[in-house]
Design brief:
eight-stranded mixed β-sheet; binds flavin-adenine dinucleotide; globular
């Protein structure tokens, strides 16, 4: 029987391990921390839980959020109803739940750090903090700070966002998203069970500057960070050019989740892509008829067809979404204004939040709705009343 070592036990590694073990493979998963509060909003979209219903059907504490408030400079704020709610977990709970599922499926779970890996015959010899271990195949799921240099995505500075924030006391029923001037990124407030996660992500700006922006925002909203625990982490956000040469698989290994750079470059959503890539890696390995080389090729093809081509296209849009201009104002300002004034445009935003609107079809949908949206916007500005008055004038 094939022995598969899964390196890292976040959502990507845990789900790959669960799938492989339930198909009868000999699976060992190693994580230096096992379940932990990984810096993360913990938000899962409709796309994630509709495809993987176990994310909802369990007794682990979680919240369903049905309202989001979007705000941008010069546009004020607008409330967006989420017909497909956002599901929010603490990462400690989500990771624990997924590791327990992997263990129940038959994976051996070990708390240890993987220090290095080298080829041995057609397989691998792994060096861990607890000793040596051999495997036929490796799933690399060590996250954005993957320390194993020869496997997984090679992230350079333009391929990452910095993400940082505070877990603070408090409760609210809604999510807040705040766009900021000249920032490729945004601030969020996510309500968790028992506390709020308030954070910022941004590209091309030092962590200290992002932290200042976040604290200014929190001070303005009367949110105190005194005594609150601070978090910071890397968020993969691949540059368009980097998608072309993204190192997601090689000789007897596949990388999944953040270790393969599989994060939405606009929203920062990574949990769905971690779980989905874990699933696709397992499917590729289980369909292994032509040997490991065929599995890795299959994995590359599946990723591309399933979502990587869409994320690559998203990376082309990212700068325009955060820093672009439309009708003499910033794109975020227009997004908030249009959401407020056009139900059709608000529908597009709802679908983007739910993960139901791929970036590849976005332009077509916006163009299709353009006339209707502009009509709705014009009417909401009072043009309707003006037209009616003009028509009824003698
Ligand atoms: C601040 C922030 C907010 C975010 N908010 C959201 C959100 O709301 N929704 C969303 O969808 N995504 C969000 N993301 C992205 C999301 O957190 C990641 O995409 C997701 O965690 C990726 O899962 P993973 O399993 O690939 O990696 P990880 O969750 O990072 O897991 C990697 C695991 O590998 C282990 N590991 C690493 N090196 C070794 C080693 N050498 N030996 C053994 N174990 C090792 C680690 O302990 C860890 O458990 C956010 C990210 C950040 C930074």
């Amino acid at each position: 029987m094939k022995r598969v070592a899964v390196l890292g036990g976040g959502p990507a590694g845990a789900f790959a391990a669960e799938k492989l073990a339930s198909a009868g493979l000999d699976v060992v998963l190693m994580d230096e921390k096992l379940a932990w509060e990984k810096p993360c909003g913990g938000g899962l979209t409709h796309k994630a839980y509709s495809q993987y219903p176990f994310l909802i059907d369990n007794s682990t504490p979680k919240r369903m959020i049905t309202e989001s408030v979007l705000a941008a400079p010069k546009a004020g704020e607008v409330t967006l109803k989420l017909g497909d709610p956002l599901l929010i977990y603490s990462r400690l709970d989500l990771n624990r739940m997924m590791l327990e599922r992997a263990e129940r499926a038959g994976a051996q779970i070990e708390k240890t750090r993987v220090m290095g890996m080298e080829r041995k015959g057609a397989g691998w010899r792994l060096e861990t903090a607890g000793g040596k271990l051999e495997a036929d195949f490796c799933i690399v799921a060590t996250g954005a700070r993957n320390p194993l240099r020869d496997v997984g995505t090679q992230l350079t500075a333009p391929d990452t966002m910095t993400a940082l924030g505070y877990y603070v006391q408090g409760d609210q029923a809604r999510i807040d998203i705040q766009f900021l001037p000249d920032l490729e990124g945004y601030i969020w407030i996510f309500p968790r069970c028992g506390h709020l996660s308030v954070g910022i992500c941004g590209k091309g700006e030092p962590a200290s500057a992002l932290r200042k922006r976040l604290e200014a925002y929190m001070a303005g909203r009367g949110i105190s960070w005194k005594g609150a625990s601070f978090y910071s982490h890397l968020l993969p956000s691949l540059d368009t050019k980097s998608w072309k040469h993204n190192r997601v698989a090689g000789d007897a290994w596949m990388a999944v989740g953040d270790a393969a750079g599989l994060v939405d470059p606009i929203t920062g959503e990574g949990l769905y892509y971690a779980i989905r890539s874990g699933d696709l890696a397992a499917q590729s390995l289980l369909a292994d008829v032509g040997g490991p080389a065929e599995s890795t090729d299959r994995y590359r093809g599946l990723l591309r067809r399933d979502f990587a081509a869409d994320l690559e296209f998203g990376s082309r849009l990212a700068k325009r979404v955060f820093l672009g201009r439309f009708l003499y104002a910033s794109v975020p300002q227009r997004m908030v204004e249009f959401t407020r004034r056009s139900p059709r445009f608000a529908g597009v935003m709802q679908d983007l939040f739910a993960g139901k609107q791929p970036y590849l079809g976005l332009k077509r949908r916006l163009m299709r709705n353009l006339n209707g949206s502009l009509y709705e916007i014009a009417m909401s500005f009072g043009f309707g009343r003006l037209v009616n008055k003009a028509e009824s004038a003698p």
